[in-house]
Amino acid sequence: MPLTDALLAGLPNGVVLRDVHGRALACNPAACAQMQLTEDQLLGRAPIDPGWQVLRVDGQPMPWSALPSARTLAEGRDLQGEVFGVAAAGGAVRWLAANTVLMRDAGGTVSGVLSCFADITAQRRQLALLEHTIDAAGLGTWEWDMQAGQLHCNDRLLAALGYRRGDVGLTQKEWAQLVHPDSRQLWGQAMRAHLADTRQPCRAELRLRRPDGDWAEVLSCGVLVERAPDGTPLRMAGIHIDMTEQVQMQAMLRHAARTDGLTQLPNRAAVFDQVQQAVDRAARQPGFGFAVLFMDFDRFKQTNDTLGHAAGDELLRQIAQRLRQALRAGDAVAQGAGLPETGAGAGTPALVQTAGRIGGDEFVVVLEGVSGREVACAVARRLLAVLAAPYTIGSSVVHSTASIGIVTSEQAANDAHTVMRDADTAMYEAKRTGRGRYVVFDPAMHERLARSVATEADLRLALQRNELFVVYQPVVDLQRGGPCGVEALVRWRHPQRGLVSPLEFIAVAEESGLIVALGAHVLRTACQQLAAWQRSLGAQAPASVAVNLSAVQLRQPSLVAEVQRCVAEAGIAPGALQLEVTESLAAQDETARARLREIKALGVRIALDDFGTGYSSLACLHQLPVDTVKIDRSFVSHAETSDYHRVLIEATIRVARTLGMDTVAEGIETPSQAALLQRLDCGRGQGYLWSPPLAAEAVAPWLLQRPPQRAAA
């Protein structure tokens, strides 16, 4: 075999020689295998199967005139890297890359074309797999011709930015205009480090402008793929990973981690950070003032328990909305307090007001840039008014005031947790002293709080050790004279502290829930004592006994059964027991009113205590399930000197009598007060004029010394 034939036969690439008319003159075995034809078929000596065809790179049939050898003959030039496919009938496609060379005779005349091609089927499969993988991964690919300043990229990269091919130029200068100025600096630093040492990755998070002007967040990773012989970088290639959704998700997670999901206000962590920043700034910057207002909403638990958790959540959302509106820059809070608005003119410190929810019904307002304590108090007064307005929850109207504790930078500690603890302590002091108010923190409050904790612990023991006892204050008939009943009042004799004031332990009992056991003890004791007097005194025994009920007791589902059991066990008539509730509780709480109606159905009488100090009015008195109205001692004490108080007492008595209700005036201390109440036609009275609260064993002697009631006229 001639050497030339041997070389052609051993080549892995196919070789075909054609004449100037395109007819195949010679070929090697590799050409036959790659073209999927026999030698006779390739050289035109045998017919080719009609199913055999040549394909373009897009898979469409390629005409003979488009074959690389035909184009070389037609155009008179050599070709390189021309790709085409060959498919036999029912067979797989083979992809070939061809180079062509014009053949000339000794005179330089074209005599034919030599085609040499390699099988690139495997490479194309790998490339397709890579492209599918890149596409599935959402990766944009790019290649940068650094000498020409030209960028090449895939459609995925453009689509991720919101562009279509042709929408944006791909020169280096045009592409740079899409990159955020801050990102250009980052990319430049990463690229220079990589070109100086290719072991250093070229990676940077970039912001690229979208068509709508927004910014896409991408992670761009590149590598130098070609240098000139002198080391000059020629070409880089890399990928873009679209990080926009991830960055947005991270921002959402950061927001969620610092935002209360229910109210969308800053949460506990964010509030504590804000307070700490204010503390740190005050330490660095003399003259910078701040204040923390710690709020807890009175009666929130009652709303939650009576109307349901959904109603409680809605109440919290409405509270948050009021805080947002009240603390908005330039709002009525700032104006009403005489405060500079946020963004005030040069030289005027701007007040920064931030509200957050730290849990349950506890909210915090952080004021930064305040000039002193009075500014914080002015904001607190305005917030109390804004938050005290009625809330509409579905078909219900809810009243809920706030108790606010204030800490200012003038007495603040040097860490957020201590500042918040002190503000919380001041808030509890506001609750203790009447609710619906604000109190500025004083270090002495910690002592009171410690006493409160100690009182609760001692009170638990007192219930076990029977240290609590009941005293009774007589109630007198103002029109006929003589006693007509008693009010049962609880007292506590502590083994070390002696008598503890009810003002000190009743509030603690209510907050801790101990009032339920305490109230049950008083109710049972009072009923048993009334029965004992009736047995021993007969007609001179008190006609009735009154027992106070707290809001916590009224929320107990077992209350009605407990009242019925106490009356039955004592053997007294239901009408001889009168249960007293505060005006605000009976007026605001529909669940409480419903429970009172159940108790009233037993025959037990209901009294409205402290009338005139709460939320109800004469106009809605008929809506309340009560038998008796008790006029608060604060009205009685001013009745002789204030026309307003006297007229209100008279109106209350008239409305109550019209509705068939009895009236009792509390806190009568002088004969002139008793005479005035008698002239105003008040039914009964109680106070130190007749007797202070008496021990159970002292009541009988007191009763026996009093003249009996006069017969009704």
From TrEMBL:
SUPFAM superfamilies the record matches: EAL domain-like, Nucleotide cyclase, PYP-like sensor domain (PAS domain)
CDD domains noted in UniProt: EAL, GGDEF, PAS
Top-level division of the source organism's lineage: Bacteria
Gene3D superfamilies: 2.10.70.100, 3.30.70.270, EAL domain (3.20.20.450), PAS domain (3.30.450.20)
Stretches assigned to the EAL domain: 452-707
The organism of origin for this protein: Pseudaquabacterium pictum
Residue ranges of domain GGDEF in the record: 288-443
Annotated protein name in UniProt: GGDEF domain-containing protein
All copies of domain PAC, residue ranges: 77-132, 202-255
